[in-house]
Specification:
With 367 residues, the protein is α+β, with helices and mostly antiparallel strands. It contains nine helices and 25 strands. Helix content is 18%, strand content 28%. The strands form seven sheets. Strands 6, 7, 8, 12, 13, 15, 16 and 21 form an eight-stranded mixed beta sheet that branches. Strands 4-3-2-1-5 form a five-stranded antiparallel beta sheet. It has a four-stranded antiparallel beta sheet with strand order 20-19-24-25, with no helix packed on it. The longest helix has 17 residues, at 55-71.
């Protein structure tokens, strides 16, 4: 069962006329946690107060929820609300947002496009997980309409982006903060869970602005996330991809934090790609270590994302620019239309499964 006892992702919901509060998805219903567990931390309109409690509390709540849904179902049945009766909201307040660039295939593909006469990977790429700081205020929940951004497209030209793209990513939600100057320790001590991410990208704005300081307005207009945060405990872990050269000591992996997650990208209801997260070069524990090694602090509600998930096969690329580059034909849709980049009215939905569980989906319509 994709939303059974071994999954139990957290989100924030409301019913008409009621305030938003924290719940857990179980099957096709939402468990209202505040009355079910007799804990007012779940009456908050955000997961942040619960996230700040830390790993012991996270595990205790998960075990209690599993116990109540398995052996004490009659006691919580009044607090199980059908999904069709609720509205889902932003699950947590985003403190900071960092986006990484952790797929070897994605980085290589874009390097060949932007630097066709040189080595696709820049000299630093295999030595550290490259990233940039995003805009926390433009992270939105799935279902929020995405307005086509305007910006400089080339010298002297301003207008709406004509090359609006997607980036299928996995996001990691921080619960426990660190003090300024103290690098993060154990990955599991700080990171609560994962969420699906679509980091919308205006490729024409990006191509004109990105040198020398990297992404800015081509990325900062919108980033969509799923309404569900899946706890780390629910995810099947695998060894990370082999790395050459060996990373510096602070980036050495202490545990298996490769994740066996299968992603599906749909455009207007049609599957166009199936990127495998297991192919990622840098693992999330390495992202966290690098993000804090200089003493930068973590805050409850920080979000860091993997960057585009792309695999080695043509049908495993997590962005339109990769799916249609280097002589590939535009994407042909069942209605007879074709796409190289997104048109107004297009709907992109990214979903994923990990073993037998679902990570839900993140969806957005271009307006």
């Amino acid at each position: 069962m994709t939303f059974g006892l071994d999954n139990l992702p957290y989100g924030v919901f409301s019913r008409p006329g009621e305030r938003p509060r924290v719940g857990v998805r179980f099957e096709d219903r939402v468990l209202d946690l505040a009355p079910a567990l007799h804990d007012e931390v779940f009456a908050a309109p955000s997961l942040n107060p619960f996230l700040a409690r830390g790993r012991t509390a996270w595990r205790g709540a998960r075990e209690l929820i599993q116990e109540k849904l398995s052996s004490s179902r009659s006691l919580v049945e009044p607090h199980l609300i059908p999904l069709e009766q609720v509205t889902l909201h932003m699950p947590f307040e985003v403190a900071d947002y960092v986006d990484f660039y952790c797929s070897l295939e994605h980085a290589s593909n874009l390097g060949r496009m932007f630097r066709p006469d040189s080595e696709p990977l820049l000299p630093n790429w295999r030595h550290l997980p490259v990233g940039y700081h995003g805009r926390a205020g433009t992270v939105v929940v799935s279902g929020t309409p995405i307005r086509r951004p305007h910006g400089q497209l080339r010298a002297g030209v301003f207008g709406p982006s004509a090359k609006l793209d997607i980036e299928a990513e996995l996001g990691f939600v921080v619960g426990v903060p660190t003090e300024l100057g103290s690098p993060a320790g154990d990955f599991e001590e700080h990171v609560f869970g994962v969420t699906l991410v679509n980091d919308w990208s205006a490729r024409d704005i990006q191509a004109w602005e990105y040198q020398p300081l990297g992404p800015f307005l081509g990325k900062s207009f919108a980033t969509s996330i799923s309404p569900w945060i899946t706890p780390l405990e629910a995810l099947p872990r695998i060894p990370g991809r082999a790395q050459d050269p060996a990373p510096l000591p602070y980036l050495e992996r202490k545990a298996d934090w490769g994740l066996d997650i299968s992603v599906v990208v749909q455009l207007n209801g049609q599957v166009i790609s199936r990127p495998p997260y297991s192919a990622m070069y840098w693992t999330p524990d390495q992202m966290l270590a690098h993000m804090t090694v200089n003493g930068a602090s973590l805050r409850t509600g920080d979000l860091f994302a993997s960057g585009t998930i792309s695999g080695p096969e043509p049908g495993e690329r997590g962005s339109l620019i990769e799916l249609t580059w280097n002589g590939a034909e535009p994407i042909k849709l069942t209605d007879g239309s074709v796409r190289t980049f997104l048109e107004d009215g297009d709907v992109v939905t990214i979903s994923a499964t990990a073993g037998g569980i679902s990570l839900g989906e993140v969806s957005g319509k271009i307006v």
